[in-house]
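Please fill in the sequence for the structure shown.

STRUCTURE ENCODING:
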């Protein structure tokens, strides 16, 4: 680092060959957001980025358009057959294709797949009361590695194969949490980095101050103590679960231009879980 704190070219960490799993929001990225250019930059430097996207807000919009009343149980969307059809169409179709198009427009070779593709993510029903919501029990790295080894960027929609349908006519796809999916993908490919792009600074303590670094056990204590809540819980859990295999887990503010590049280059940004 130079005296001014900025990173010079000679300071840059060599990311060639590094596997970087990045979870990003599913809706169209906001104006000024640098996530796509940052990922393309890493790809051009020889890194192997893997993108997992969400899409909860877009699903809610489309569910409402179809006249379906959203229902949540303990913060999780109840997914009946009709809602599942909308969720799969939105995630694996609309949102995934939009993101792939953004990467292609930025000069990258992006390939859209879902967790169903090649048996990438395999799940069982999490809770019968929630319907077609899955708990991931297995992940297969091969579909992702086939794309990265051929020089592409996998863009993954969070769906999963339903391993144990009650009857042959039952849906063979389950809706799964995107944060959890990113953690399982990172473990499967043995990623060097797992990075969650969020709309907050990182993980905050009880006094709302940023926690720059914490261990797996400290992370789980935050959840047990009720300090971490809402959408931060699956991100922390995914990092804590993955760091036994993954180099490091990071929760950063994706609204900051260049945040992803800074994180991968080792700058103190957001929260690092080790």
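FILLED IN BY: designer on duty
SEQUENCE:
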């Amino acid at each position: 680092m130079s005296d001014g704190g900025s990173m010079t070219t000679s300071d840059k960490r060599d990311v060639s060959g590094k596997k970087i799993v990045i979870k990003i929001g599913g809706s169209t990225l906001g104006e000024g957001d640098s996530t796509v250019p940052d990922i393309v930059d890493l790809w051009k430097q020889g890194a192997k980025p893997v993108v997992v996207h969400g899409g909860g807000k877009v699903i809610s919009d489309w569910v409402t358009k179809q006249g379906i009343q959203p229902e949540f149980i303990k913060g999780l969307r109840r997914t009946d057959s009709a809602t599942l059809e909308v969720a799969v169409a939105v995630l694996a179709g609309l949102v995934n294709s939009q993101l792939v198009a953004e990467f292609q427009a930025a000069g990258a070779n992006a390939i859209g797949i879902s967790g169903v593709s090649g048996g990438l993510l395999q799940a069982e029903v999490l809770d019968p009361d929630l319907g077609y919501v899955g708990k991931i029990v297995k992940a297969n790295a091969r579909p992702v590695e086939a794309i990265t080894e051929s020089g592409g960027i996998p863009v993954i929609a969070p769906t999963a194969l339903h391993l144990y349908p009650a009857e042959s006519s039952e849906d063979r796809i389950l809706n799964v949490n995107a944060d959890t999916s990113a953690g399982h993908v990172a473990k499967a490919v043995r990623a060097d980095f797992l990075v969650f792009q969020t709309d907050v600074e990182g993980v905050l303590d009880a006094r709302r101050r940023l926690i720059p670094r914490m261990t797996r056990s400290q992370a789980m204590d935050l959840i047990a103590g009720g300090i971490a809540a809402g959408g931060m819980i699956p991100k922390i859990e995914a990092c804590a679960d993955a760091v036994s295999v993954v180099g490091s887990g990071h929760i950063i503010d994706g609204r900051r231009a260049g945040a992803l590049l800074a994180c991968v280059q080792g700058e103190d940004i957001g929260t690092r879980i080790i």
